[in-house]
Every structure is written in structure tokens, then in C-alpha cells.
Design goal:
The complex is a heterotrimer. Chain A is of the alpha/beta class. Chain A is built from ten helices and ten strands. In chain C, about 75% of the residues lie in helices and about 0% in strands. Classes of the chains: A alpha/beta, B alpha/beta, C mainly alpha.
Chain lengths: ~240, ~625, ~290
């Protein structure tokens, strides 16, 4: 396997706040990687910098051997890196179908080709509920349905790496039970995944490897199974210095 | 910025007065003296507009309307009723000021381009009323034959009139200067930079904006009156939209928010047409080009750019080395010892945005003198709840009782005055103001001296200012920032910014201090300091409600922890209790029974680190 | 009765112009959260250039196309030099004053080249008035509101049916989300200003036969168009068109029954009153501020 995404010594600052300090991470072709950590640890900012939503203050981001640090988000997506943002950010005032077509915006021809329509059907197979709702306004969907739409929209650019920011945010466990297996299936089919997730158990269950962030840095990294049994992960979350 | 101005205050006044007295003798001819008089009239408008634009951050594109109101008032009174300069001036200013109140009212609800439209509309209305109300204003023909100005019954010749206008301009300058360097000016600048923070410090931003509008309107009205007696003739075309833009350009060109800028801008804009005449038909074009050039190359304006350059150099040369004994909080602000009663009591509080319920019937009691924490995963509704109890949002249902009184419907500035102080998730400092000024803003409502004694620099003002300046410096000493008192807040390191926000909140003598993620972005060492500070505050009787993600900190300092998830309260109790609560563990880690993978779920709640351990 | 009908029809005519100008403001605001305060001068550019081209013997259709082309270039350049550099500035004063400055320059240049006088643009629509129930009205005046409504319908179709149109709505809704799906927000802003300016140029050409073209015709039309956009709710295209037509009708009635000066005083007073009652405009969407 070869490195698909390599982040070296990334820093992100907002004004005086260093949200990300000297973060390095790696995602290989077809790998499923997660970044876990508490709220405010810098996970989302790391993802946003990779996706080109915020400009990094320092560091390198290399996708497929080519540097992409500082590139605008709309150019990053053309290189095969797609992001499902925190809070989903679907276009609430447009229909489900139009949201999906916009997901294919970066593709040749601007997104209304036979290939795109085929992919649309593929999404409907993945999330049948979206097919029923295709003419509805996206804003009228439930939270879980909106997340499905955001995932599908992200997939329509045909990325090689899908980055998902806080998928569980505001969603009931029941909904997550249907979403995570879908991500796992996508990964088995060859799509690399970089998941940022607050719910550690879930992320550690599915991801091959994980990074634990705390206070804007990477605290730990390794195979998810090993991290799941690491005392420090629990400390970082619940602040229990000693296992009670 | 105002530092430079404050230094040359008395000497400058004397020099300016001498210059005004001498100018009629220096001026080459009547025409030049007339031009200088006009310059001073424009300076009066620009100085007033500076209070609005430069200090309060509100853009008026209708200042010519207020100028017209002053001018027509004086002209009509003089020609119809034979009213002289002084009563004309008083009535013109009063009338324009009344319209200033009217114009300020929309700022309660609209700002930015919306306010721009309101002011443009106002200017055009005045212009057209002047055209339409023929019987009073003479329509297009206007009002001519304005009698020569008189002062105390004595007629004023050109030279004497110049001195009257000059003295008035000097007064306008001092009003602008004294207002700027006072609690009112600080409140205006604070309102402009962060309305929400200003409110949280007990400042009634509507009142402050109204004050700014009234000051600028009265200045424009006065200028209108002076113009009538200079020109002896007025007509509607002197008060068009273009003139409003010209007045705004004077402020921006000179340097908005500075003391001298408006005068410099007015001077340039008075003399410029003289030089632009050389461009013949290209005059207006050159004017537009100048406006564009200023915006591109001198967005701070002339005086603003100079001050910026100087302050950059001065900042390096000023090592503040005041290292005194760290003061006690109780010596600076009023703190009541805790009596164990309920400080804040929220019952069934709900807040919804659109259809989304962010906070759902939350009950929460915070006992006085205790450290109470509010935690929960991202999007759980913690900040929304904080905003609801501090008056930023209004609860859709439920009731909130603070110190025994029902505060459900109070605004944040009213709550602040009752002793509810807060900090913000993303720090809402007044970044262009100094560290000391940031704290002084919070003392605004404590001042006893009124606006009159402030402008006239009466002893009561000086006493207040000295007292609160000392208190503010002491507060900075308390949080360890006294070395940075004169630094701009935006230049502080982030950890210091968080401390400053706490110092500012303490200036309110709070009973309850709400801390919204105070540890976010801090280093470990800074978090240790924060923990010590929070404990100290609680020990001195201030009740603390803290929203935080940093679990270690929460567990270490909290007497009581409340956990929210999906807007609902899922657990409440001591730190140990919530830590082992299965519902809390699920909210943070995800469901233990979640998924259908072959391996057993990692079960931190069971005490072991993971299923495979 | 016939007078009232007369005012109503004439009001629709001028209201259609306000509506067209306001649609332009709506389009610019949606993509850039800023507008061109010299948009009124885009109208002037369209009207004056068409007359200049006609003077040079260019055929009417070509003259119209050329003028609209120049208007488009003007809008695009202005967005690039006067608005984009000030986009980060939270206070709107930066782009407000730069675009006003460019408007002043354009207007004074037009005065130098075109002269300070007003000239009508010849149009078959103003040859002779048609009489409806005793009210005389030019075809041109009836055409304008029709065009305004047509444009807003076409805009709606464009924004629903085409990928670029959807992208415009996406940018208006959320710039970050638009960026991550691959929409170049800068290109969309540029396109929006081009479209708004084309409509502005068209509005100028449509109104010139009725009110005559002059170098200074743009200022008041621009201000009123902007006021109308704000009171209609600048986030809603149909909203600004309805507000534009209503404003035109009210204006004509006040003009007819009282006077021209009263027209402006009453009209702009209504603007303030509406804003006081509906801070987001009549049909606008509320933009929530988060702390």
C-alpha cells in the first residue's frame, strides 16, 4: 500500500489561537483511519485544513505525491479528496436530487452526465430513503437523512479519500447503526476513509488505525484495537486519572 | 490612539485659540477667511460624524439631512421671526438632535447596509421636504436675505463671526476629544467592536447608539446654522446625497476614530475643490478617484495612518515594569460571601431555533459560592443554555430566577447590572482597545459623573476616572496582566486574552460568573493557572457556572456537574457520580451495545480499559 | 378613475425598472454579501452607450447588445477591484465607498463625453400611447414590468434547472459548503456580478425611452432600486420584484395627486417604516448570528 494522504507538521491558527499544533498523519490507499479526541481538541480544524476550508499556518499536505496545502477547497475536491462537513451543511433550500447533482459539480461536464445519473442510482441503493425523498427540500429531512444526503453528496465527486467530520453529531444511536456499516462497506470496496469522531468506541471499532488528539496535538496513534485498551484514551475522555 | 491627543491637550487648546484669534489678520483676503470659516463649519460636522462612524461604528449616508435641518431652522427663524444667532443655534441643534434620536431608533433592529438605506432615505426625505414645503422653505428658490449674525445684540462682522465659528469648532473638537477619552467613548467603541460583549458588561447599547446619533446630529445642526449666517442664502441643492458622502469622506480621509482626523479631512475637502478647479470638467472625476484612492491606500485615513505608525514604534519602547503585590479581589470589587442559597434557578428552560429544539426543558440550580459545571458532547445545547440564562437568547418556555428575582425576560445588560457576568467561547474582547480600556468598559455603569461633567472635565469626572482606573489596574494585577495594561487587547497571547476576559467580567462585581469554555486553546500550564484562579474566585464568594470540554478540569474543580445531551439533562450530581453514570459514558463514547461487530465493546464504564485488555 | 388607472399603469412601468435594478442587487448580495452602489450607473451605461452607438450608425439590436456587453465588463471589473479586496471587512463601509467612488468617476466621465443634457432613446414602444379605459400609456411602459416578471421567472428556472444556477444558490446558502463540493465561489461571484450588470444595462435601455438618458440618470434609480431590494428582502428575488412594482405604483400615485418632491419624501418614508416593522424586509430570510 502507498501513502494516499500525508500530513506533515500541520499547524492551524485562528487569530492567536493555535487550533492545530504540529500534527502529522498518514492515510494509505484503501485505509480506514479515524481521529478521535474530545471536543475542541483540533480534530475538525485538521480536517478543514486538509480540505482547503481553512488555510494552514504551517506544514505540508501531500495528496498522491502532490502538495495541496493552501489550495482552495474547490480545487482540493477535484483531486479526489471529498469532505462531509461537521453539521452536514447540506443545501437546505434545494431538493435532495439537486443536492446530489451539486455533489458532482467538480466532475467533468459539471455533473449532469450519464455517469453521474448512474452514481445517483448507486446512492439511492445505498440509502433508499433518499430515493423516496428525491424531490423534497433537503431542509425538510430528518437529521439522519440529512447525514445520508451529505455522505452521498460527498461521494458524488468520486473521491479516493472521503473525510467525514463528526458523523455522529446530533444523531441517535439507532441512526448511527445504519450509517457506520455503510461507511465500512464503502471502505471494503476500496475507498479510503478519514473519520473524525467524538464517539471513541464507535470510531475505534471500525477504523483500522486511529489518532487520538488532545489540546491541538496528536497524543497517541496506532491500530484501533490497541488504542481501545489504552488507559490514556480513557483519561483523555473522562479525565479519570486512575482507573476506578 | 488617543494617547497622543491626551498629552497635548491644554497646550493645544491655547495654541488653537491663539491661531483662531490671529487668523483674521493673517488671512490674505476676505475670500480666504470665508474659506477658512467654511472649513471650520465642515470640521464641526466631521467631528460630530466621527463620534458616530469612528467611535460607534455606524455609517450615516444622510448627514446632509441633519445639516439641512439645522440650516433651515436658523434661516426660517432669522428671516421670519428675527431670531438671532444664539437662539437659532440652540434651536437648530435641538431640532437636529431630536431627529438624531429618530434616526437612532432603527439601529435597535437594523445595522450595516440596512442602516445605510435608512440614513440615505432620511437625507433624501429632508431634501425633498425642503423642496415641497414651499411656504416655509421657499422650495427651489430657497431662503435668501438672511440677516447678519448678532451676538448679544451686537452685530458681528466677518472677522468676529469667524472667531465665533472658530471657537465653536474648537469646542466641537474638545467635545469629540473628551468624549473619546471617557467612559462614553469607550462604551461606543466597545459597542462597535462587539455588541454582545458590551451588553454582557451592562452597557445599554441602544442608549449608547442614540447618544452617538444625537451628538453627531447636534454637530451637523450647529454646522448648518453657521453655514446659514456665512452664506446668507440656502436652497435644497446644498443638502444632497452627494454632500452626505462628502461629509463621510472627510471623516474617513482624515482618519475615523481619531481626534484630529476629522479636522484634517475637513481641511482637505474644503481646499480640494479649489485645486480641482484646475481639472475643469474632470473635477468630479478626480474627486471620485481620490475617494477610491483613500479606500485602497489609506483605509485608516491620514491621521489614523500616522498614529498607527507611531504607536507601532512606541509599543516597543515602553517596558511596563509595574510589579506590585498582587491585590486582593475583595479590595477592588464588591464580593459578598456565599450564603449557600440558590444563586440561579432555571426551571424547564427550552430554546428552539426554527423547528430544532436546542435546549429541552432543562432544570438547573446553581448554589451560591459553588463551582458548577455544565458538560456534554458537541451540539448538546450547553452554549445555548448559557446564552439563555445570560439573556443573549430568550427562553421559549420555562423560567429563570437569579438572586431571587424572576429574570426570564431580562436583557443581557440588565442581567449584567444585577451581577451576572460571563466570558465567551471565542473570546469577545474589544480587540482595538487597550487591555486597561477593556476593563474600564466594564465599570461604565459604576460611574457617578454624567455626560456634562465628562465633556467639561469637571472634578467629579476626574475623581471617577482616577478611581476606576486604579481599580482596573488592580484587577489586571489580580489576574497577572498589569504589565500589559497599555497593550492593545488583540496583541495579547491567547492565554492572556482569556485572563483579560475574566478580569473584565470581575469588574462587574459579579455574583455569578459564567465561563464558556475558558480552557479552550490554553496550554497545560495556563489551564493550571485557570484552575487556581477559578478556585480563588469561588472561595471569595463568586458563584461559578462553567461550560467546558476539558474533562480533567471539570472533574478537578467542580462541586456539581450537570450533563446535557441532545438538549436534555441526562445526569446531574458530583463529579464522581456523573463519571460513572452509564448514560454519560454512552454520550461521550458511544453506545456500548452499539454495532454488531464480533469483538466485545470497549467498556470503560466497567473499569477495564477495553474489551481486549 | 382614468387618472388612477393612468397612475397605476405608469407606476407598473417605473416599478418594473426598480424591480430589475433590485433583482441585480439581490443577485450580487446572494453571491458576495456585498453590492455595487454604482449599480445605478450600470443603467446609465446601458442607456447612454446605446444612444452613442446609434449615433455612430450601429443598428439598434447590435447597439443594445454592445451596451449590455460593456455593462457586463463594468460589473465584472468592479467586483474584482472594488468589492473583492474588501470582502473580509466586516463593516460594509469599504465596498460601499469604493463602489460609490467608481460610480462618481463613471458619472462624471459620462458627463464629459455625453454632455450634461438628457436625450431620449428612440423606441417603437413610445411612438404613440395606447388608450385603456381613458388612460394613455406607452407600450414601453407596459413592457417593462412584463420583462421584470419574466426575468425573475427565468432566473428561478435557471437557478433550479442548471448546474450553474444551483451553484449560485449553493453559494448564497453557504459558501463553505459550496466550496467543498467543488464550486469556485469566486467564479460564481464574478458570474453573478456579470448577470446583475447585464440586467442593469437592460433596465437602462428599457427605461431610457420613457425618462430619457443622461449621465446622471443612474443615481436616483440606483438608490431606489437598492432601497426596494432591502425592503423587499434582499434574499428573495420574487420579494424584491413585488416590492419594486409596489413602490413604483405608490410613487406614481403620490406624484400624481401631490407632487414630485412629495413622491420622494413619501416613498423613502415608507422605506424607513417598512424596515422598522420588518428588519429583514418584507420577504427576506432572517440571518442568525451565533456566539
Amino acid at each position: 500500500m502507498a501513502a494516499l494522504l500525508e500530513v506533515k507538521n500541520l499547524s492551524v491558527t485562528y487569530g492567536h489561537v493555535e487550533a492545530v499544533r504540529d500534527v502529522s498523519l498518514l492515510v494509505e490507499e484503501g485505509e480506514y483511519v479515524s481521529i478521535i479526541g474530545n471536543n475542541g481538541a483540533g480534530k475538525s480544524s485538521t480536517l478543514k485544513a486538509i480540505a482547503g476550508v481553512v488555510k494552514p499556518a504551517a506544514g505540508e499536505i501531500v495528496l498522491d505525491g502532490k502538495p495541496i496545502a493552501g489550495m482552495a477547497s474547490y480545487d482540493v475536491v477535484r483531486r479526489g479528496l471529498s469532505m462531509v462537513p461537521e453539521g452536514r451543511l447540506i443545501f437546505a433550500d434545494q431538493t435532495v436530487e439537486d443536492n446530489l447533482y451539486l455533489g458532482a459539480y467538480s466532475r467533468r461536464g459539471g455533473g449532469r452526465s450519464a455517469a453521474v445519473s448512474e452514481d445517483l442510482e448507486r446512492m439511492f441503493a445505498l440509502f433508499p430513503i433518499l430515493k423516496d425523498r428525491r424531490q423534497q427540500l433537503a431542509g425538510s429531512l430528518s437529521g439522519g437523512e440529512q447525514q445520508m444526503l451529505a455522505l452521498s453528496r460527498g461521494l458524488l465527486s468520486r473521491p479516493r479519500l472521503l473525510m467525514i467530520d463528526e458523523m455522529s453529531l446530533g444523531l441517535a444511536p439507532r441512526v448511527l447503526e445504519t450509517l457506520f456499516p455503510v461507511i465500512e462497506k464503502l471502505n471494503r470496496d476500496g475507498l479510503a476513509i478519514l473519520l473524525v469522531e467524538q464517539l471513541a468506541t464507535v470510531a475505534l471499532r471500525y477504523a483500522h488505525r486511529s489518532y487520538v488528539m488532545e489540546d491541538s496535538r496528536i497524543l497517541l496513534s496506532g491500530p484501533s484495537g490497541e488504542l481501545a485498551s489504552d488507559e490514556r484514551v480513557i483519561e483523555a475522555y473522562l479525565g479519570r486519572r486512575k482507573a476506578s | 490612539m488617543s494617547r497622543i491627543a491626551r498629552h497635548f491637550n491644554p497646550a493645544f487648546v491655547v495654541a488653537a485659540a491663539i491661531l483662531i484669534l490671529a487668523l483674521p489678520h493673517i488671512a490674505a483676503n476676505e475670500y480666504e477667511l470665508r474659506l477658512i470659516t467654511l472649513l471650520l463649519i465642515y470640521a464641526i460636522i466631521a467631528l460630530g460624524l466621527n463620534v458616530l462612524v469612528g467611535l460607534t461604528g455606524l455609517v450615516s449616508l444622510g448627514q446632509a439631512g441633519l445639516y439641512a435641518i439645522g440650516a433651515y431652522t436658523a434661516a426660517i427663524l432669522a428671516t421670519r421671526l428675527g431670531v438671532g444667532l444664539v437662539p437659532g443655534l440652540i434651536l437648530g441643534m435641538a431640532f437636529a438632535g431630536a431627529f438624531g434620536v429618530l434616526l437612532a431608533y432603527p439601529t435597535v433592529r437594523v445595522r450595516g447596509v440596512y442602516l445605510a438605506v435608512v440614513t440615505i432615505a432620511f437625507g433624501i426625505i429632508v431634501e425633498n421636504v425642503a423642496i415641497e414645503w414651499d411656504s416655509l422653505t421657499g422650495s427651489w428658490v430657497g431662503i435668501s436675505n438672511v440677516p447678519a449674525p448678532t451676538l448679544l445684540g451686537l452685530p458681528l462682522d466677518t472677522n468676529a463671526y469667524f472667531i465665533v465659528v472658530g471657537a465653536s469648532a474648537l469646542i466641537a473638537f474638545l467635545v469629540n476629544l473628551n468624549l473619546m477619552n471617557s467612559r462614553f467613548g469607550r462604551a461606543m467603541r466597545a459597542t462597535a467592536q462587539s455588541e454582545i460583549a458590551a451588553r454582557s458588561l451592562g452597557i445599554n447599547v441602544v442608549a449608547i447608539r442614540t447618544l452617538a446619533f444625537v451628538v453627531s446630529a447636534m454637530a451637523a445642526g450647529a454646522a448648518g446654522v453657521f453655514y446659514v449666517y456665512l452664506n446668507k442664502y440656502i436652497s435644497p441643492d446644498i443638502f444632497s446625497f452627494t454632500d452626505s458622502i462628502r461629509f463621510l469622506l472627510m471623516v474617513i480621509l482624515g482618519g475615523s476614530g481619531t481626534a484630529l482626523g476629522p479636522v484634517v479631512g475637513a481641511s482637505i475637502m474644503t481646499y480640494l475643490p479649489e485645486y480641482l478647479q484646475a481639472f475643469g470638467p474632470w473635477q468630479a472625476f478626480a474627486y471620485g478617484l481620490l475617494l477610491a484612492a483613500v479606500m485602497f491606500f489609506l483605509p485608516r485615513g491620514i491621521v489614523g495612518s500616522v498614529e498607527h505608525f507611531l504607536s507601532g514604534r512606541m509599543a516597543e519602547a515602553r517596558p511596563d515594569t509595574v510589579r506590585e503585590e498582587r491585590p486582593r479581589l475583595a479590595d477592588i470589587v464588591a464580593v459578598d460571601p456565599a450564603d449557600g442559597s440558590a444563586c440561579l434557578d432555571a426551571r424547564g428552560v427550552s430554546v428552539a431555533f426554527g423547528g430544532l429544539v436546542a435546549v429541552d426543558k432543562v432544570d438547573e440550580t446553581v448554589d451560591s459560592g459553588k463551582i458548577h459545571a455544565l458538560i456534554g458532547p458537541n451540539g448538546a445545547g450547553k452554549s445555548t443554555f448559557l446564552n439563555a440564562i445570560s439573556g443573549v437568547y430568550r427562553a421559549d418556555s420555562g423560567s429563570i430566577t437569579f438572586l431571587g428575582r424572576d429574570t426570564t425576560r431580562l436583557n443581557s445588560h440588565q442581567l449584567a447590572r444585577l451581577g451576572l457576568a460571563r466570558t465567551f467561547q471565542n473570546t469577545e474582547l474589544f480587540s482595538n482597545m487597550t487591555v486597561l480600556e477593556n476593563v474600564l468598559v466594564a465599570f461604565h455603569k459604576e460611574y457617578r459623573s454624567n455626560i456634562f461633567s465628562t465633556i467639561c472635565r469637571l472634578p467629579s469626572f476626574r475623581r471617577d476616572e482616577r478611581h476606576f482606573r486604579e481599580a482596573a489596574i488592580a484587577l489586571l494585577g489580580f489576574v497577572g496582566l498589569s504589565a500589559y495594561a497599555h497593550e492593545k487587547a488583540e496583541n495579547l497571547a491567547f492565554g492572556h486574552q482569556r485572563q483579560l476576559e475574566i478580569a473584565r467580567a470581575l469588574a462587574l462585581s459579579p455574583k455569578l460568573l459564567l465561563l464558556d469554555e475558558p480552557a479552550a486553546g490554553l496550554t497545560h500550564a495556563e489551564i493550571e493557572q485557570l484552575i487556581a484562579l477559578v478556585r480563588e474566585l469561588a472561595a471569595s464568594g463568586i458563584t461559578i457556572l462553567i461550560v467546558e470540554h476539558h474533562v480533567e478540569l471539570i472533574m478537578e474543580i467542580s462541586d456539581h456537574v450537570t450533563v446535557l445531551d441532545y438538549g436534555e439533562l441526562i445526569a446531574s450530581g458530583s463529579a464522581e457520580e456523573v463519571q460513572t453514570d452509564p448514560k454519560v459514558i454512552e454520550a461521550y463514547f458511544g453506545s456500548q451495545s452499539f454495532g454488531d461487530g464480533p469483538e466485545p465493546a470497549a467498556g470503560p464504564g466497567a473499569g477495564s480499559a477495553g474489551g481486549e485488555a | 378613475m382614468s387618472a388612477a388607472l393612468q397612475y397605476f399603469l405608469a407606476g407598473l412601468g417605473i416599478g418594473g425598472i426598480y424591480a430589475l435594478v433590485a433583482i441585480g442587487f439581490h443577485i450580487m448580495w446572494s453571491s458576495a454579501k456585498a453590492v455595487n452602489f454604482a449599480h445605478g450607473d450600470t443603467l446609465m451605461l446601458g442607456a447612454v452607450l446605446t444612444i452613442v452607438f446609434l449615433d455612430h450608425g450601429i443598428a439598434m439590436p447590435l447597439a443594445i447588445l454592445l451596451s449590455i456587453g460593456v455593462a457586463i465588463v463594468f460589473g465584472v471589473v468592479l467586483e474584482r477591484v472594488a468589492i473583492r479586496p474588501f470582502a473580509d471587512n466586516a463593516a460594509s463601509i469599504g465596498w460601499m465607498l469604493t463602489t460609490i467612488a467608481i460610480g462618481i468617476m463613471l458619472e462624471s466621465y459620462a458627463t464629459i463625453e455625453f454632455g450634461a443634457f438628457a436625450r431620449p432613446l428612440p423606441s417603437p414602444g413610445v411612438d404613440k400611447p395606447i388608450i385603456i379605459f381613458g388612460a394613455g400609456v406607452f407600450i414601453q411602459e407596459l413592457l417593462i414590468p412584463f420583462v421584470a416578471v419574466l426575468i425573475v421567472v427565468l432566473l428561478g428556472i435557471f437557478q433550479r434547472r442548471t448546474q450553474l444556477g444551483r451553484a449560485m444558490r449553493a453559494v448564497a446558502f453557504n459558501r463553505v459548503a459550496a466550496g467543498i463540493v467543488g464550486i469556485n465561489v469566486l467564479h460564481v461571484a464574478m458570474f453573478s456580478f456579470a448577470l446583475a450588470s447585464a440586467l442593469g444595462g437592460l433596465a437602462g435601455i428599457l427605461v431610457a425611452p420613457v425618462i430619457q438618458a443622461s449621465a446622471t440618470m443612474g443615481l436616483l434609480l440606483g438608490i431606489k432600486g437598492f432601497a426596494v431590494a432591502i425592503i423587499g428582502g434582499i434574499t428573495s428575488a420574487p420579494g424584491v420584484v413585488i416590492a419594486g412594482l409596489l413602490y413604483g405604483i405608490i410613487e406614481k400615485f403620490v406624484d400624481g395627486y401631490i407632487s414630485t418632491a412629495a413622491r420622494e419624501a413619501v416613498g423613502f418614508s415608507l422605506v424607513i417604516i417598512v424596515l422598522m416593522l420588518f428588519p429583514q424586509g418584507l420577504f427576506g430570510r432572517r440571518e442568525l448570528v451565533k456566539v
